[in-house]
Write a structure and sequence with these properties.
CATH architecture of one domain: Sandwich
Oligomer: single chain
Number of helices: 33
CATH superfamily of one domain: Galactose-binding domain-like
Helix content: 40-55%
Radius of gyration: 36 Å
Distance between the termini: 66 Å
Shape: globular
Largest sheet: 7 strands, antiparallel
Amino acid sequence: MTTLKIITTSIVALLMGALTCSAHGQRISDPYEQQIRPLLAKNCYACHSGSAPKGGLALDTQAGLHKGGLSGPAYIAHQAERSLLLRVVRHDAGVPAMPPGSKLSDSDVSILSRWIAAGAPMPTTGVVAPSTANIKTWAFKPPHLVARLPVVRDTAWGRTPIDRFILARLEAKGLKPSQQADRRTLIRRATYDITGLPPTPQEVVAFLNDTRPNSYERLVDRLLASPGYGERWGRHWLDVVHYGDTHGYDKDKRRNNAWPYRDYVINAFNKDKPYARFVREQVAGDVLFPMEPEATVATGMLAAGPWDFVGNLELGEGTVEKEKTRLIDRDDIVSNVMSTFDSVTIHCARCHNHKFDPIPQRDYYRLQAVFAGIDRGDRPNYDKANMVRGAALQKQRTAFEQRRDTANRTIQAITNPTIEQIDHEIQAAKDRLSDLPAPVLGAGSPSNGYHSDISSTQNVSRWVQVDLGSEVPIDSVRLIPARPTDFKDTPGFGFPLRYSVSVSRTPDFKEAQIIDDSTARDVANPGDSPINIAASGVNCRFVRITATKLWSRTNDFVFALAELQVLENHRNRAVGKPVTAQESIEQGRWSTRFLTDNYDSRNPLPDLSDLKTANLVAARETQQAAIVALRKRRNAEVESKIDPATRATRDGALQDLAKVDKEIANLPEPTNVYGIISHAPRPIWVLNRGDVEQHGEKVAPGALSAVPGLNCDFSPAALGDEGKARAELAEWIVNPANTLTWRSIVNRIWGYHFSGGIVDTPDDFGRNGGLPSHPELLDWLANWFYRDGQSMKRLHKMIMLSAVYRQSSNIDKTNRGERVDADNRLLWHMNARRLEAEEIRDSVLAISGKLNLQAGGPGFELFRFKDDHSPIYDYSDAALAQQPVGFRRSVYEFVVRSVPDPFIECLDGADPNARTPVRNTTLTPLQALAMRNDPFMITQSDFVAKRLAAQTQSVVKQIDLAYSLVLSRGPSPAERSALVLYAARHGLANACRMLLNTNEFIFVD
């Protein structure tokens, strides 16, 4: 008792300290979160919170508390005894008794009284986070640890521990499980579930004839070991993370290097990568496993979803629209991670506290802060050997740089009278420069400059030229590099690696004079520094810049300039003059007319058409040149005073640096993979109603506060380190105490096997989602999966060997199941499953004998592509579907977001613009037409007929073989007679097409 009293007193003292020290509007410390908010949430928020509180009194916001309700102000600051809120919770006479039907304890009333006496401090923005002290959402509660398996009456039925949980629920409802499916059904079901392909006739016969007791287990092991397992289950995962090979939105540009992530997923399933490692790699593989190339590829999951090309690359920095774009982009990443791994609808807390689950808005923005330092794009990635070698070279390079820098610091410390005199001269030149007035800027309107068309190859020629209007003797040509608003961090945007500058009296440049030839080797990017090219008074009317090796942007190449100046006697004769180009993008802030508009992508330029301004600019350039020359003199003087030992140290380090740089340069070119590009984290605030213009509290990276047993706060190091924040989130997700994670993955895998999860909303374990049909089984599976090594293949096997999985889908009319459990949530029979779109397409190819099992690499394309302003993907050319490259498995098809494959889309393929945890299953006339008349089906039916004809000339045997290929069984006599007659009348190909349109082919059972 004494110990309890001391602890309680300490808490109250800490609470009082926090309350008396907190000023209005500041973030409240943890004692407030642990005491006041849970108290209000437990007793008051049910009626007095949200947009329509009872009595007009909202206690979940500071504004609501200050305003009060219909009965007047809820409290009087610093006067607890006079405050209505305290009087009603004490059940004083003359006021309503709150909460109705109960009364707060004396200790709770005391805590509330002290809070009011301290001024009732609360957060000023947003709403108060919901309490986690009284969590009602099942998923956030600790798991139910099963001490022993459920007791059942029918002890003979079960085959794995799973069956005990299933049977216990059935027996409690007075139900019995269905009979076991026949062996033909089992091999067809298992083969499709694991590989997405039909069993071959030979495999069916071998299984039917295998009388060994473990024959079915051997079948499951064989299927799990096949490459088709990763291709089938990789497709499921790609649905969940909404993978695509294009950006989406209105400019649905290609992502030519996205496919390595798709291959990573397939390989991870085939390798049976432990699930915790699988999660870590996708959230922070580049940080946690920097020497593993595939771990860097894995982070492509964060960039798998749609991405607004215009908003991210073309909108100006600092604009509201840019911030909205970035907010939406981060929202996609946060939702993808949290819904995929933890099955929570975190995005509902973007504008306000989650209305149904214990997820405060602050938690949502803490998760946004985790990803506040990443953008999307191509990143280089070496293979394992060169990654290790490159890391070793970089370590050497760092050591050499330190040695060089130490020598340079010694050198810079040298002083003598000559150096001091030069320093005085440098300062005098700086003073003269500062005394010169700033030149008057022109009146140019904001623009980026000139931009060539986008080329898929680098070594092509692009030119742009200006017409000065008449022949003039020019002194120099100045090229001003671009730094467009949407590439603010990219100085020298579009500046060519090789180019020439020529002048001419005629626009065709047939008798041109080259004044600068930089085409022999690559030139360094000038960044923001203008390039001055002397012309020595040559007479000309036209000046042309010809790029011969374009600048590499992402997956393409361009030529761009902010401004072209042609100087005569310091005056710019090109300003406002007409510009023509071989190719040009004329859109937004790019145009040929912007090349001579006196604007350099960021600011207006000095008006060199004015003689006074031109002379002033020349004077400033003279002083700047003088400073450069003096610094060279100073450096030469310092060099002459260096002692031999220091010089040897520095020169040796420089030589070593040159050698290691050469070795680094000689490393093979890395593979570009589409994924995340890491930057310094951007600041993140809680946004009132999700409005980027209404900043609230600034937040640090963190996770969900409602998961019991887990710390939602990250280390201070994660605040300024983008990679560290992601690494800590990855570890938080896979923490054994995070039951959301382990429940989520076992529920997903269960759902794909039974056409519905234990929780039928696999992305939403919240109060708006479904409740578990078998909560004890879900927790038992999650615990077993975690402790058994997190092998997804072992989980598959556990499920597939169970008696519940082996049930027939046929419904016994004598069973009460249809009345008691019409939706079959208790699994008293197996659910019949329709093949998914990819399974249908791949199965048809397998049946025709045309399936190309080439794995991995860039996706095959069934469209004609044109890279227009908005790219065009045209599927109208049926001949493309008949080429062998298009006979690969559907998981390797290039996925276009804006224009999906019409055949796959018609058959309910996943929409890559949205996460698809569960495929829609519809039955429409369009599907029947596609299965009957799509060019793919017509072509493949012909191939099936040719395959049959190559094996036998007997029509009867051809029909028998067709049945075994398509339906994994032989025909009945009536079926055989009917289809033989049909083939005689309409041809064997049409008979095969008829068979491919049967329900028995489309449905697994």
